[in-house]
Design a protein that fits this description.
alpha+beta, globular, disordered N terminus, Nucleotidyltransferase, domain 5, single chain, 1027 residues, eleven-stranded mixed beta sheet, Rossmann fold, paz domain
């Protein structure tokens, strides 16, 4: 994984992140703050506009409130917060009455404070044939079998057997039946069974019940209506094809053999990827109608002779791609199932199908067909990506090249459509190994053996044909680089023949080396087997070894294509599909509409914010902060110090500049800082210096770095060991503009301040807690060391949703080869419980009545598992705190790894405006999801975030949730910009990557853990150290 700080934020060392954007938002102020103006954006720039109208005390709060009869469609004519006349102003995002899936009983005292009381009287009961407010659109008798609903008899038995424990504790299960399937007393008490926490049987039954009762919420309306209406073009094209039944087969290589002189089989130890590549010869030997995905799936309309559902192992003579002797391939093939091309269209028209019923096999078949049609002159990599063979850029000094390509995928939206997008990817530079090294190092190459060994670690190479088989024919071999020799080919001796490497190849292979002065390459891990560099070619399309941040910055530059140009290239690619004469086009009747989708969209109004004594409506996408809402120095003068590590002649100048400019700039933001102590120290003195400054009462240390080597140690020392707030900045960035204000944004947040407060998120007595959760997975390691996934979960601890507490843990090992990936967050119940307690400590002992989760990093195929396990854990955490504590829960997945893009109708407009939301046509046909582009497009084409509601107890409307989410994107404290997804999710991403930094240079990261959790210093848990 890369250490990039995410799109839109400033890195901890100063300056923008490698992706050019920044983070997230938070929620608004206490009640009584001014109401937002949510009509069309009046200015469209970053000018600060001040709210007008009556003082806060005279204006309505417009936020969450106890549900009333007037909330029901039949409950009354008045509606608080309705649009005012024809002024174009819209209300702030109202918190909806709780109840989708819950029948709320009266509540009493929670956490020592009197809470609003809710009961069935707050929701008028429906007439005969009418559904309760918040009830799922289908009753249990109407649901499709895929929803796995538990029968009412079984549900009542579950309540009788497990709910009525003496202590009333246990796991809450997502409701699956309509309210009228419960008796009146049961409806008043609770709508889900309760299991005792800590019981293995209870946990198993809870998980089983959840799996049998999952029902992803339907869209509560026909889409939102607030904001200024417009139209955009999406990179989706209508797709039509014939309805056909296709047999799917699974194929895998078992073993590869060669025959020795005595015609005995000798198994070759080939990497899995090279074994799979040999399967193409098997596919070529089958009938012409076979479609192969390049991995393990084969599709055919006709049965493959001799292959059954039980599977069969076959052997085939294959041609050696390296020109060795003829090889034998053992492979196993079996019939799996019949896949129908019409399943995608049927999914769209089935009103009861959910995302859990997505016809993934049919989608994979259609993706495979389209990819086969489009291959042509492209290199096929992955399931859907096609790359041009010629790179668009070669970065010689970093040893990687960037290739441009296209990704196609079939999407079941409101119609069957194909989503086409451009992509760029970096690969290790291919070519002759010696030539590539000379291109980077030039004439000084002979003195760079150590750096070359680092550059080439674990890279796969192929020899030129100089090996000979029994018939005397030359062939090649492939190896992995395991290091370089300490001597050159001209001096490295082969002891068995008492010759140098150069002499050996001259005498035995008639090859006179061109570069005998270069070191040789070690190609065997356990034995000293060396080959000259110039006899090796780098195998194309390998992952580069350069720093991830360096790769990302170059890839972003190549991918930063203006929307008009991007869509023009996509149109050209789609027209090639339309004009294709490939037999599969006719066979499956493939028709692609030549015009991309032109769809309705809306631009949401920007929120208002408070900067201390000043209030103004924020600019669209960016704004200027005239002052901090809550300066960290409100309690007194900030004491600080500047430390530098030796290694740069500008260190003293940089310290003097910071000592002068930072306090003077801070004064403009109402932050008072004293004159700092400055020192240039050795790394060995870091811990002693930290302890010394702590004893002197220093609040934070600013460290100027001239390389990245000391960063992990500094952050471990500050975040884990001493609790000292630290802010690092790269020396080379200090001469760039706006560095000082950007540093102050992060320093104020780390010291407990609030840079600005969003006024239009929510305002009333009901407490709401917002969570952000993310899991970062390890990059493939170049050694046998196993790195594990890291999970971070944050929860707001203040009613204005601006301050967050965080728990970071290392995921349990799920090892597969040398990769460990686990997306479901371990111990979510204990994490949520701790964060709820942190919230309670900051709100005079009160618990939140609504929990809103923004969950990052979950793909569609993981919806069911994540929802089942994590939602049950969240509910279990609540009932563990108090048996009667049942807050409304909304669980939203935030997806960024998709390829939906929008462009304005007017090409001169470049990108869509921040706040552009799309909730029809390219979304799920029935479920509650939407695309929101909340950030300003700094370069290239803006990428919207996709939000999918998987669970909702709060009866959100489309307008309310979209505005609430958009406003949260304005509360990210690292930069004065609206960012690409909500602040808590962005903060979770930063916290997970900070943990990755802690362990990046450690051989045994377990020393930082206790019970799987990172031992963050107690003063840092709510300190937002990751900013």
């Amino acid at each position: 994984m890369q250490r990039g700080r995410g799109r839109g934020g400033y890195s901890d060392r100063g300056g923008y992140d490698d992706q050019g954007r920044s983070g997230r938002g938070s929620y608004g102020p206490p009640r009584g703050a001014p109401r937002m103006s949510a009509g069309p954006d009046r200015y469209g720039d970053d000018r600060q506009q001040f709210s007008s109208g009556p003082p806060p005390s005279a204006r309505g709060y417009g936020g969450p409130r106890p549900p009333r009869r007037s909330d029901h469609p039949r409950g009354g004519s008045g509606q608080r917060g309705a649009p005012r006349g024809n002024s174009g102003e819209m209300p702030p995002p109202q918190f909806p009455p709780r109840g989708r899936g819950h029948a709320w009983r009266p509540r009493g005292d929670i956490g020592g404070q009197q809470q609003p009381s809710f009961g069935l009287d707050d929701f008028p009961l429906p007439k005969s044939g009418e559904k309760l407010l918040g009830q799922s659109r289908e009753t249990s008798s109407e649901r499709a079998p895929s929803e796995r609903s538990v029968s009412s008899d079984h549900r009542r038995a579950s309540e009788a057997d497990y709910a009525h424990k003496p202590d009333g504790s246990g796991d809450r299960i997502s409701p699956s039946a309509s309210s009228d399937s419960l008796s009146e007393p049961a409806r008043q008490k609770k709508s889900h069974p309760i299991l005792r926490p800590g019981s293995d049987l209870a946990g198993a039954l809870a998980k089983l019940s959840m799996q049998r009762s999952i029902h992803i919420p339907s869209r509560p309306d026909k889409g939102g209506s607030s904001g200024q209406r417009c139209e955009v073009i999406a990179n989706c094209w209508d797709l039509k094809l014939l309805s056909k039944a296709v047999l799917m087969y699974f194929i895998e290589p078992v073993a590869v053999y060669r025959l020795d002189k005595e015609k005995k089989k000798v198994e070759l130890n080939l990497p899995p990827r090279e074994k799979r590549a040999l399967l193409q010869q098997v596919v070529n030997g089958l009938h012409r109608e076979v479609i192969y995905d390049g991995g393990h799936a084969i599709y055919s309309e006709k049965p493959i002779p001799g292959v059954t559902k039980d599977g069969v192992t076959k052997q085939m003579n294959i041609v050696d791609p390296l020109n060795r002797d003829e090889l034998l391939l053992d492979y196993r093939i079996m019939e799996v199932q019949t896949v129908h091309t019409s399943d995608v269209a049927n999914f769209i028209t089935n009103s009861k199908a959910t995302s859990l019923d997505m016809p993934q096999d049919s989608i994979r078949l259609l993706d495979c067909i389209l990819k086969t049609i489009c291959k042509g002159s492209f290199e096929s990599l992955g399931r859907a990506a096609l790359f041009y063979t010629d790179p668009v850029k070669v970065v010689h000094d970093k040893l990687f090249s960037i290739h441009k390509g296209f990704i196609t995928s079939v999407r079941p939206q409101w119609k069957v459509r194909v989503n086409v997008d451009m992509t760029c990817k970096a690969f290790f530079t291919s070519g002759n190994l010696a030539d590539v090294m000379y291109e980077k190092y030039g004439d000084g190459i002979v003195n760079c053996s150590r750096q070359m060994a680092t550059d080439l670690r674990r890279i796969r190479v192929e020899t030129i044909p100089f090996y000979k088989n029994d018939a005397g024919d030359k062939y090649s071999r492939r190896f992995t680089i395991h290091g370089l020799s300490s001597e050159s080919a001209a001096t490295l001796m082969i002891t068995d023949v008492n010759q140098t490497v150069a002499e050996y190849f001259d005498k035995h292979h008639n090859i006179r080396l061109k570069y005998p002065e270069l070191p040789c390459v070690k190609v065997n891990l356990s034995r000293d087997v060396f080959l000259p560099m110039e006899l090796l070619n780098i195998i194309p399309y390998q992952a580069p070894n350069a720093k991830k941040s360096e790769i990302a910055s170059e890839v972003i530059r190549c991918a930063a294509i203006r929307p008009e140009e991007r869509f023009r290239e996509l149109d050209t690619f789609v027209r090639e599909i339309i004009k294709s004469s490939h037999p599969l086009v006719k066979e499956f009747g493939i028709q692609v509409d030549p015009k991309p989708q032109q769809i309705p969209a809306r631009v949401l109004e920007t929120p208002s914010a408070s900067f201390g004594r000043q209030q103004s409506q924020l600019g669209r996408g960016k704004w200027m902060a005239p002052a901090f809402f809550h300066p960290a120095s409100a309690e007194g003068v900030i004491s600080w110090a500047i430390l530098s590590l030796p290694g740069d002649r500008n260190a003293q100048r940089h310290q003097q500049m910071l000592a002068t400019q930072l306090p003077s700039t801070a004064q403009r933001f109402n932050v008072t800082m004293n004159r700092p102590e400055c020192a240039i120290i050795q790394r060995a003195d870091l811990q002693h210096q930290f302890q010394k400054l702590i004893s002197q009462g220093v609040h934070f240390i600013l460290l100027v770095l001239y390389d990245d080597l000391n960063y992990p140690a500094i952050k471990r020392l500050g975040d884990l060991q001493t609790g000292m707030r630290t802010q690092c900045v790269r020396g080379r960035t200090l001469d760039k503009p706006n560095v000082i204000p950007n540093l102050l944004l992060k320093i104020n947040g780390k010291l407990g301040g609030i840079n600005w407060q969003i006024l239009d998120v929510m305002r009333n007595d009901e407490l709401v807690m917002v969570f952000g959760a993310d899991v970062t997975h390890p990059a493939p390691t170049q050694t046998q060391q196993v790195r594990q996934s890291i999970a971070a979960v944050l929860g707001s601890v203040t009613p204005d949703l601006m301050r967050y507490a965080v728990v970071v843990r290392q995921q349990a090992t799920t090892e597969k080869g040398n990769k460990t990936t686990r997306e479901i967050i371990d111990s979510m119940d204990s994490i949520v419980g701790e964060l709820l307690k942190a919230f309670c400590r900051n709100t005079n002992g009160r618990f939140p009545t609504r929990l809103i989760f923004y969950r990052d990093g979950v793909s569609e195929g993981q919806f069911e598992n994540v929802l089942v396990e994590e939602l049950a854990s969240i509910q279990r955490a609540c009932t563990a705190l108090r048996p009667d504590y049942e807050p409304a829960i909304t669980y939203i997945v935030v997806q960024k790894r998709h390829h939906i893009r929008f462009r304005p109708m007017n090409p001169r407009q470049r990108n869509v405006d921040p706040g552009t939301v799309v909730d029809t046509h390219v979304t799920h046909p029935r479920e509650f999801d939407f695309y929101l582009c909340s950030q300003e497009g700094i370069q290239g084409t803006s990428k919207p975030a996709h939000y999918h509601v998987l669970y909702d107890d709060s009866n959100w409307t489309s307008d309310a949730l979209q505005r609430f989410t958009f406003f949260l994107c304005h509360a990210y404290m690292r930069c004065p910009r609206s960012v690409s997804y909500p602040a808590p999710t962005y903060y979770a991403h930063l916290a997970a990557f900070r943990a990755r930094d802690w362990v990046s240079d450690l051989d045994k990261p377990g020393v930082l853990l206790k019970g799987g959790r990172f031992c963050v210093h107690e003063s840092q848990i709510t300190g937002m150290y990751y900013l």
